[in-house]
């Protein structure tokens, strides 16, 4: 369903009226397209503190001066005391207003040093700074913090955040501290030669994820329940992939997937999910168990099976779908919130072991209000609240979740592991 309020605020009368009434004034976001693959304008590079970071190794076209930058990269990795935080203010204060509409601010920090509580304090301060700036910067601009130790290893993350692909990702703190040394991928088609399986891919967000991975060169396997086999086949045929009709909750689902993919799997996207909303006092056991079985148990079982069988190759990627409902909770969704919070626990526990034992990274995306058929059925006033209660004052699109998933699936994203990245326009709810 079209966001008529967003359209109205883009008109001259709409801008005048909403400004006079103090109403939200969302800016139409500039997303990736073949005609506009990059931000329009220079990338301004600023520094706070004494930094040893080699940003030249990323190949990003950074400049030290720009009157109207499309993005600002502030290297604050050298900030180790409160005086260094003053340099953050000094660097950004004069330029924030000049950042282009739908522009980006990316702050670079380092992991917290457990042996230096001063460094840990000020580097943690960057998180509060980043999230606060994201809530006030406006005009479709986003602000994110990347904690890193090596710029080259974090290159895919920086390129994602400094591109139109990250239009609905703001207020996030991402750690890119692993090793991606020596990993290369074809420009424009980084998933060429890789096989990606997407569950729940016959429609909605899953179909958008499959389409984006196929755009990036992957051979896509579109998995959905037998009842949606025809829709799954249509998506697969359109993308040059294959369809797999399978009940993901079956005890042997992992074995069936392994049998269907004798050559192995490079990317596993856990997207399948259902809702059976009702307040706990009115929720029968079947509504509870069905949601937990699809949204969490099936993810645990199939992941374990595909790792144990070796179907998921070394260098592989697992990306699961969580939700801000699992981070902040939501009335009437105790079952859904529990399942999605469980995904977060899975990611944080499995990620280090999966990387050490299987060479596979494990991350999650956590969508907020995304414009789908499901959210279109929500009553008007609740739907409008969902759209406006974020820093960008609008709902996201399925492609926003898909672009974030594709970044995490990128061969050069090995430095990102154990992360839960919200795709919510910096929702005012949740962490």
TrEMBL record:
Keyword Hydrolase included in the entry's annotation: no
PROSITE patterns the record matches: ADH_SHORT
Record-linked InterPro entries: KR_dom, NAD(P)-bd_dom_sf, Sc_DH/Rdtase_CS, SDR_fam
Domain of life (superkingdom): Bacteria
Annotated SUPFAM superfamilies: NAD(P)-binding Rossmann-fold domains
Catalytic activity, EC: 1.1.1.100
Single GO MF annotation: 3-oxoacyl-[acyl-carrier-protein] reductase (NADPH) activity
Location of the Ketoreductase domain: 194-368
Keywords: Oxidoreductase
Family, as annotated: Belongs to the short-chain dehydrogenases/reductases (SDR) family.
Name assigned to this protein: 3-ketoacyl-ACP reductase
Protein source organism: Streptomyces dysideae
């Amino acid at each position: 369903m079209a966001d008529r309020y967003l359209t109205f605020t883009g008109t001259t009368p709409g801008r005048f009226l909403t400004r006079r009434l103090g109403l939200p004034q969302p800016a139409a976001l500039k997303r990736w397209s073949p005609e506009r693959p990059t931000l329009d304008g220079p990338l301004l590079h600023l520094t706070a503190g004494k930094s040893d970071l080699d940003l030249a190794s990323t190949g990003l076209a950074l400049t030290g001066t720009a009157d109207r930058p499309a993005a600002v990269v502030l290297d604050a990795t050298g900030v180790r005391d409160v005086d260094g935080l003053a340099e953050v203010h000094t660097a950004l204060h004069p330029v924030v207003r000049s950042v282009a509409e739908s522009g980006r601010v990316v702050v670079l920090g380092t992991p917290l040093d457990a042996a230096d509580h001063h460094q840990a304090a000020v580097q943690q301060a960057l998180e509060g700074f980043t999230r606060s700036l994201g809530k006030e910067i406006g005009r479709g601009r986003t602000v994110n913090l990347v904690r890193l130790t090596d710029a080259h290893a974090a290159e895919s993350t920086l390129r994602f955040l400094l591109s139109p692909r990250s239009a609905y990702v703001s207020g996030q703190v991402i750690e890119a501290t692993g090793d991606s040394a020596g990993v290369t991928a074809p420009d424009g088609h980084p998933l060429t030669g890789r096989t990606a399986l997407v569950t729940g891919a016959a429609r909605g967000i899953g179909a958008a994820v499959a389409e984006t991975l196929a755009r990036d060169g992957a051979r896509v396997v579109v998995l959905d329940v037998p009842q949606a086999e025809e829709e799954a086949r249509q998506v697969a045929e359109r993308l040059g992939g294959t369809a797999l009709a399978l009940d993901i909750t079956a005890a042997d689902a992992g074995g069936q997937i392994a049998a269907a993919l004798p050559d192995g799997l490079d990317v596993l996207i856990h997207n399948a999910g259902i809702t059976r909303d009702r307040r706990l006092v009115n929720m029968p056991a079947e509504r509870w168990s069905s949601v937990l079985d699809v949204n969490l148990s099936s993810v645990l079982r199939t992941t374990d099976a595909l790792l144990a069988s070796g179907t998921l190759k070394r260098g592989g990627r697992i990306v699961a779908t969580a939700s801000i409902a699992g981070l902040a909770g939501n009335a009437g969704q105790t079952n859904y919130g529990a399942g999605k919070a469980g995904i977060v626990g899975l990611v944080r526990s499995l990620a280090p072991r999966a990387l050490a034992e299987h060479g596979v990274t494990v991350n999650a995306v956590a969508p907020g209000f995304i414009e789908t058929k499901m959210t279109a059925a929500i009553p008007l006033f609740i739907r409008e609240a969902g759209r406006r209660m974020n820093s960008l004052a609008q709902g996201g699109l399925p492609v926003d979740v898909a672009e974030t998933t594709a970044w995490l699936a990128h061969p050069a994203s090995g430095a990102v592991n154990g992360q839960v990245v919200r795709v919510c326009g910096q929702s005012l709810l949740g962490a």
